[in-house]
Design brief:
By secondary structure, the protein is of the alpha+beta class. It is built from 13 helices and nine strands. The strands form three sheets. Strands 5, 6, 7, 8 and 9 form a five-stranded antiparallel β-sheet that branches. A two-stranded antiparallel sheet has the order 1-2. Strands 3-4 form a two-stranded parallel ribbon.
Length: 372
């Protein structure tokens, strides 16, 4: 739940609440450090999100003690709170983890049937992982109010009446693993980067800077994930009286598969220029790449040469070397340490206010903590 700053000014003042702007570079780096520590516990781990992971504890004799020990290491090394839920299935593990967040130890194990049943009897169906709003309403209509009601249901009946997903949840609540580990997730087929402006934009320069920045970030992600694309779309959102605003977009097909920042940024900016109209207030811009493929498509292209224009091929190879160096520098010294000129030297005309942003003391040399 969120609220505009001006609506809660009195609460901020009365309770001395500290305000922080978002700092995604810091969050991403801390997430990477946590995942590295968790990976040291087990051979099998699935990174589920930036702040969540599933670990296989089957080879650990005392999972509870191991979780307590790792929680202490993360607290000492990173200063972050951590909760562990331990169970035989992913669904039960999620329930245990939610309990652990409120536990004094930060670790909860649901391994005994009687304890599991006691927990499930007071847990409403809408709190079960995988049960959405519409499904929970349907379940209540058919007399399923708690997680225990689901556990004691006939899995085959639940599949016929609801879905195979509901059947799997029922089996998982009974300690039967139905959701496998995804140590290597299927590659994404599309990727999107977009952002709303902090205020209305009437000129093209800020739009070019923002789009170049987002496209550059997207291309870097493509290279990190060893993927490439041959199609994308860009959009501009126009500020209107409606909350949604009006969206104008343009699709672009590239002649070959690529993850070259120079190539994609140039095409994206050109597409945006064709969409842009003066004296119109814009509130957001974004880019979506489609038809993502493994970057071995680039090797196939090189195998058959760069085409009749060999000078152009030499330019592309030079750009690839530049991008490799740029990625290395940005990884070491922080995102945006080296960027395209079209991204702008001063991005204050379109970026959100960062007056309350915490320091990126783990990713930016200029913001290192100073010990006096």
């Amino acid at each position: 739940m969120s609220a505009p700053h001006f609506k809660i000014k009195h609460l901020i003042k009365d309770h001395n609440i500290h305000i922080f702007s978002s700092n995604f570079a810091l969050y991403s780096d801390m997430s990477r450090r946590i995942m590295a520590l968790l990976k040291s516990m087990t051979q099998h781990m699935e990174v589920y999100s930036v702040d969540e992971a599933f670990l296989d504890f089957s080879g650990i004799q005392n999972p509870y003690a191991a979780a307590l020990d790792m929680r202490q290491k993360i607290s000492q090394g990173l200063g972050l709170p951590m909760s562990f839920g331990i169970a035989k299935t992913k669904t039960l593990t999620k329930i245990a983890n939610n309990l652990a967040k409120k536990s004094a130890t930060g670790v909860v194990a649901l391994l005994q049937d009687d304890i599991i049943d006691d927990v499930l009897k007071i847990l409403t169906v809408d709190k079960v992982w995988g049960i959405g709003k519409q499904t929970s309403l349907s379940l209540r209509q058919w007399g399923f109010y708690t997680a225990y009601d689901l556990k004691t249901a006939d899995p085959r009946y639940m599949r016929q009446r609801f879905s195979v997903v509901t059947e799997r949840i029922v089996r998982e609540l009974n300690g039967m693993p139905c959701l496998s580990f995804e140590e290597v997730r299927d590659p994404k087929k599309s990727m999107r980067v977009s952002k709303s402006f902090s205020h209305k934009i009437y000129t093209f320069d800020p739009i070019e800077q923002a789009l170049s920045t987002f496209t550059s970030s997207l291309c870097q992600k493509l290279r990190e994930q060893k993927q490439c694309t041959n199609a994308f779309s860009i959009f501009l959102k126009i500020k209107t009286d409606t909350p949604q605003g009006d969206i104008i977009s343009k699709e672009v097909s590239l002649p070959t598969f690529t993850n070259n920042t120079f190539t994609i940024v140039k095409a994206a900016v050109l597409a945006a220029k064709n969409l842009f109209k003066e004296k119109i207030p814009y509130k957001a811009v974004g880019i979506t790449c489609y038809n993502l493929q493994p970057d071995n498509m680039l090797k196939v292209k090189r195998l058959f040469g760069d085409g009749p224009d060999h000078n152009q091929g030499a330019t592309k190879r030079s750009q690839e070397k530049s991008l490799k160096a740029m990625d290395a520098v940005n990884k070491k010294f922080g995102k945006g340490s080296i960027r395209l000129l079209s991204e702008g030297l001063d991005q204050s005309s379109w970026t959100a206010s960062t007056d309350h942003k915490s320091q990126a003391f783990t990713t930016n040399w200029k913001e290192l903590m100073v010990v006096k």
